[in-house]
Specification:
360 residues, mainly beta, 10-stranded antiparallel barrel, 7% helix
């Protein structure tokens, strides 16, 4: 039994095949208006295949497949093992001192993020580059209660009794991330964006502690400490969006990295002014280690296409948590110099991240 095909039937078959294939393409090539890629999927009519993790990256029509984004960050910056002094034990009386430790005034500080992203047009993979800037400084002064004094052997080579303790901490963080991702739908209202890439990190810390001598008010003890480092290594994580309707969403982020870190300059300068003035300096260079980091974030966002899906605008507010383990090498360096077993405290960053993104 033979079959014959007319030119009309062959053309119809080719057109049907191309039409089915076009339904899986990005929005820039897809005339199906029921799909706003990156937002929630409509249940009918279906413009996607049930056997394929449909791409969920934002895709504008007739655009360059680029996006620009920026964030204002307001993060709390703190670090372990930064105690500057403790009240010396009182040998007589039963006074209870509630503020027994002197610590820097850790607080929220402003910063920013900027970056750009792009669609590779290969299996709907996307990429982005992001730079984070957070430079902060804080100072604190503590005065010992009447009848007591501060004492310390943490930042000095010998125990010093003081009536007043002053500290200044500067921490400058610069971070550069470059990553690739393939966002996809997990159901009709949830999108998942796993990512992997490389991270570069530069941290510069300076911590100065000064004491007014309790036995000689004209004498001041000063400890100047420095830690400068750079780091590079792989990072990975995932971002999830739960579509709530009308462009609104709940979002979450989790990521981690492990970085080859070199502390290029560790330094301690100790000096005193007054009748018994002296000065000493010690330094160490190129201390190499591996340092892990972790980040989590939860928040809300809103995004929408406009101008017949030629552009996309997105806004989000998220609270982020970051842990950078074993960054306070200053304390360990000073304590090891003075014959004690030094600790290496962690650096903590957490706070609000307000972001805006524009796709074109």
């Amino acid at each position: 039994m033979s079959k014959t095909f007319s030119l009309t039937s062959v053309a119809a078959l080719i057109a049907s095949t191309l039409s089915a294939d076009m339904a899986t393409k990005s929005q820039s090539n897809n005339p199906c208006m029921c799909l706003e890629q990156g937002l929630g999927l409509n249940t009918a009519p279906k413009c996607y295949s049930a056997a394929y993790n449909a791409p969920a990256a934002i895709s504008v029509r007739n655009g360059w497949d680029f996006n620009l984004f920026a964030s204002f960050i307001y993060w709390h910056v703190s670090q372990e093992s930064m105690e500057t002094a403790a009240i010396a034990p009182v040998t007589s009386g039963s006074t209870n001192y509630t503020n027994a430790m002197a610590l820097p005034d850790f607080d929220y500080k402003p910063g920013f993020k900027v970056g750009f992203g792009f669609d590779t047009n290969y299996d709907d993979w996307t990429g982005w580059v992001e730079y984070t800037w957070l430079h902060q400084s804080t100072s604190h002064t503590s005065t010992a209660p009447a009848g007591a004094s501060y004492t310390d052997s943490l930042w000095f080579n010998f125990t010093v009794d003081a009536t007043d303790v002053h500290s200044e901490w500067k921490m400058h963080l610069d971070m550069l991330d470059a990553a690739f991702s393939r966002p996809y739908y997990e159901g009709t209202q949830i999108t998942i964006s796993p990512y992997a890439g490389m991270r570069g990190l530069w941290i510069r810390q300076n911590f100065n502690v000064s004491y007014v001598d309790a036995t000689d008010a004209t004498m001041t003890h000063l400890s100047k400490n420095k830690s400068h480092s750079w780091a590079v290594g792989p990072m990975l994580g995932t971002i999830g969006h739960w579509m709530l309707g009308m462009g609104f969403r709940f979002e979450g982020k989790a990521g981690a990295s492990i970085l080859y870190t070199q502390y290029t300059n560790l330094r301690n300068n100790e000096s005193a002014t007054g009748a018994s003035a002296f000065s000493s300096a010690r330094s160490f260079h190129n201390y190499n280690v591996l340092r892990p980091t972790a980040e989590l974030g939860v928040g809300l966002g809103w995004g929408s296409y406009f101008d017949n899906q030629n552009y996309f605008w997105d806004l989000s507010a998220r609270y982020d948590f970051n842990v950078l383990w074993n960054q306070n090498v200053m304390t360990r360096f000073v304590q090891n110099l003075y014959g004690t077993n030094g600790t290496t405290g962690d650096l903590f960053l957490h706070g609000l991240t307000l972001s805006s993104r524009f796709d074109f």
